[in-house]
Amino acid sequence: MVLVRTVDGKTVKIEWQLSSPFDPNMEDADDAEPAPDSTDFSVTIEEPKGSGVVFYCSTQSGQDHRFVIGNLTRFSGPEQKESASAYNGPEFEDLDDKLQEAFDEYLAEMGMNDDVCDFIDAS
C-alpha cells in the first residue's frame, strides 16, 4: 500500500505490504501464532529534481515513539533510487545520537506520526 503527499515541494511516499487477515495454510486456529507487533515500511522523500532519501522503518507498539528507523539511503536520481546494488547506508543505531534525533524530527516534519503508524498497523 502507498500513501503519497507533497510537503514543501518534496514528494513523500510511505510504502508497506498489506498483511492478510487469513492464512489459508493455517489448519488449526489454536496453533496460530499471534500477528507480528510491527510492520516494516519505507518513507521516500524525493526532491523535484529526482534526488532524495529512503528511510527503512518498522512500527512498534507503545505510547511514545511508534516507529524505529533501521537504516536509510540517499539517492541522486531515479537510476540510483531503483538500483538493486545501491548502498543502504549504515545501521541507524550506529549514527550519532544528534543525527538520529535530526532524522526523527525531519520525518515528523514530513508527516510521519503516531496516526500514520496506527493506520499502517491496522492495514
UniProtKB/TrEMBL annotation:
<dbReference type="InterPro" id="IPR003428">
    <property type="entry name" value="MAM33"/>
</dbReference>
<dbReference type="Pfam" id="PF02330">
    <property type="entry name" value="MAM33"/>
</dbReference>
<dbReference type="GO" id="GO:0005759">
    <property type="term" value="C:mitochondrial matrix"/>
</dbReference>
<dbReference type="InterPro" id="IPR036561">
    <property type="entry name" value="MAM33_sf"/>
</dbReference>
<feature type="region of interest" description="Disordered">
    <location>
        <begin position="19"/>
        <end position="40"/>
    </location>
</feature>
<feature type="compositionally biased region" description="Acidic residues">
    <location>
        <begin position="25"/>
        <end position="34"/>
    </location>
</feature>
<protein>
    <submittedName>
        <fullName>Uncharacterized protein</fullName>
    </submittedName>
</protein>
